[in-house]
Structure prediction request, 173 residues.
Amino acid sequence: MKKSILKLTLLFLMLCSCQTEKKDSEKKEYLRWVGDIEQNDKIDETEFKVCNGDANILQYFNLGKGPIYSGEKSKILNTFKTKYQPISDKNQNGLIRIRFIVNCKGNAGRFRVLQSDYDYQEKEFDNEIVSQFLNITKGIDNWVVLERDEVPVDYYMYLIFKITDGELIEILP
Prediction:
C-alpha cells in the first residue's frame, strides 16, 4: 500500500512539473524566416538601419532579379582579386559565405559568416582569411538600390568564396 501511494505521489509531482506554464519573459520568439539576421549591437554597426523594418526585408530573388552590383560582377571580382592576400595552406579548403542586408539606400550591414568544407560540413578557416573577406565585403559601397512597386526596399545578399589551399578560386553567385 505504501509503495502504491509513493508511486502515485511521484506520478502526481511529475505531472505537475510538466504542466507548469512559462512566464512571458521565458517564451522564445522565433525569427520570421530561417536565416533572418537580427541586429546584434555587439557585432553590428549601430548606424546601419533598415528602412522598412525587419519584417519587410526581402530576398533579392523575390524581386525577380539576380544579384546586382553597381559595375556588375566583374567589379566585385576585381576588388577581391586585387585586395585579397592568399594564405598558402593546404588545409584551407572549402566555402566561406558572407550574408548581409542591403538597405533601401544601398548601404550594407549585419554581416554574418558561415564556413564549411566542400562537403558542406562546418569548418573553421584561418582567421586571417575570414577577416580579409569580411573586411573587403564591408568595404563594397556600390550595392544597387532595388525597388518593388517603385519603392526602395531592404534585401538580403550574400557572397560565397570558394577557397582551395588558401587561394580564392571563385566567387558565387
